[in-house]
Amino acid sequence: MKPLVSVIIPTYRDWDRLEICLASLNKQSIAKEKFNIYIIDNDPYSQVNNLNLPSNGYLVREEKKGSYAARNTGIKLAETPLLAFIDSDCIADPDWLKNAIRFLDTNPQIGLLGGQIDLFKEEDGNDLAFLFEKHYAFRQQENIRKFNKSVTANLVVRSNLFLKFGFFDESKLSGADMEWTSAVVGAGERIVFVKDVVVRHPARKSITELCVKRRRTIGGYYHLTYRNLSLTKRVISHLVAFLAPIKTVSKFENIPLTERVVVLFVKWRIEFAAFSELIRIIFLKKELERS
């Protein structure tokens, strides 16, 4: 039986949570012979010990910095008609692959799909960080249906699209997945949100982790957009970053006022971290951060 889909997992010093991810893939409702797993280690200095590598799994190393370089390595190794992307800290629903394969088999006009991403709080997670992520993180359905873009935490793609349109932009540490999916759809392919293709993703454990993530994503925004803006538009973008959350939070339905205020202040703290990172990139010419 030839595999139908290759699961691609970039990882960077996240072996414990990777084991949990692999355990969820081991429980998939389709036969192991139907899929391969490519784990791309993006840490050139790591020493892998006692990884419970499944029989259909392959562990390779990509020393070029960045998860997109790692994903591209997996794409080039895979020889299946479908590619399924998931993060090393995610947990796949038992029917994740079965439902994705079934949907694409019955909808040949669809080139790629993004699935549901359910957040959960880890045991040592911070309540404030989880509260914020619950309202702001992974707006997968909205991003796909309104903006034709998806993250690689839960994305399934026909592999020929990478031959047709090229790979993820390895120069970016963040945002290249959204950029690639948007460009592919703009070129005529179709993307859909499929609710029963589900992965679970842990919320960031602390406000500090949220700030680190935002500093990383603002680096991608800088290269994509910010550095090409006029001074006036840069100022406006900062005003929007700090004022827009007021409107967003005010529209939360059935949420206590105290919870809205907490989420607002956390958002402001994170945007201040993003502003500081932009200053660091522009004036100190520092290398972009990674998580």
How would you describe this protein?
This protein has 10 helices and 8 strands. With 291 residues, it is of the alpha/beta class. It folds into 2 domains: 5-202, Spore Coat Polysaccharide Biosynthesis Protein SpsA, Chain A, CATH 3.90.550.10; 207-284, no CATH class. The chain has an 8-stranded mixed sheet. The model has no long low-confidence stretch (mean pLDDT 91).
Q: What's the helix and strand layout?
A:
Blueprint: E1 5-11, H1 15-26, E2 35-41, E3 57-61, H2 67-77, E4 82-86, E5 91-92, H3 96-106, E6 112-120, H4 127-136, H5 140-147, E7 154-158, H6 160-165, H7 176-186, E8 191-202, H8 207-224, H9 231-250, H10 257-284
Parallel strand pairs: 1-2, 1-4, 2-3, 6-8
Antiparallel strand pairs: 4-7, 5-8, 6-7
Helix pairs in contact: 4-10, 8-10, 9-10
The whole-angstrom Rg is 19 Å
Number of β-strand runs: 8
Q: Spatial order of the strands in the main sheet?
A: 3-2-1-4-7-6-8-5
Biggest pleated sheet: 8 strands, mixed
Terminal residue distance = 38 Å
DSSP strand (E) fraction?
A: 15-25%
CATH architecture of the largest domain: Alpha-Beta Complex
Number of helices: 10
Shape: globular
Q: What is the CATH topology classification name of the largest domain?
A: Spore Coat Polysaccharide Biosynthesis Protein SpsA, Chain A
